[in-house]
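Q: I'm writing up a methods section and want to include an example of the input and output format. Could you take the sequence below and give the corresponding predicted structure tokens, formatted cleanly so I can copy it straight into the document?
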Amino acid sequence: MIFYILRRLVSVAVTFIVVSLIIFFMMHAIPGGPFDANDMPVSAAVREKLMANLGLDQPLWVQYTRYMWGVLHFDFGVPYQSPGETVTQLLSRAWVPSLVLGGLGVLIGAPLGILLGMAAALNRNTWIDYLASTLATLGLTIPVFVTSMLLILVFAVWLNWLPASGWGKPERWILPITAYALIPLATYARYTRSAMLDTLNRPFVTVLRAKGLSERRIVFQHVLRNSAIPLVTVFLPMFIGTATGSIFVEAMFRVPGLGAYFVSSIEGRDYPLEMALMLMITFMYCIAYLLSDIVYALINPRIRVGGTP
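A: Here is the clean output for your methods example:
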């Protein structure tokens, strides 16, 4: 296990470097620069001075080396769109709404999806199964900005029960959390139903029933545990993807989260912020899959990470 973790950490480092190279050179391959926007035109002399102060007049390999050296010291630079703070300060400030709303959305939607998938699997080919499958399909196929608009239209405009947007008060969190929760709910409902149906058809379930074990014990102690591996696979990546902000959800509900900076950093050629966002996502996904592999072995002892069964 220890050697496997060490090998995976080395692969994380390699992936981190490769992604940083790709993102860095793709950023600079896009025409334009951070001071070429029409809304804030500057003269050629001022542009040259700004480029020299930020080191953007240096060769690309020099810029990359300097930036990555700063990353090793947890210094991601200063964002061009908010020069009064560092990238780390901006991310820590903007990540709070995204983490709270997106994280709660996954933590609420995933358990509900598991319960819905269990109900569908245990009542196969009944109206419960058909209803659960229909809800899961709708949750996966309807775009999140459409569901967000429907939530605002129904609960904020027609019924006037909840505020349509904002971040400050907890009652403003309900609609965005609901929009975030629909995707994990639908995803987990389908994964749970498929995994449990596959497990219920295995011979060991028949043996357990022949031994006289109750159906509840069979389901919760044996079937659900053996169906948990695909659920573990989905959880951490989904949590990271949701907790780092959705561009559409945050725009629809006017949440000052992290999602908008993914767009603004690209549009404004904000190189330090764009690199920091991409590197953060890369690192978090690598660690998420590493933790998932470790949890596999804890859930099912027959699985051995790194080699022999």
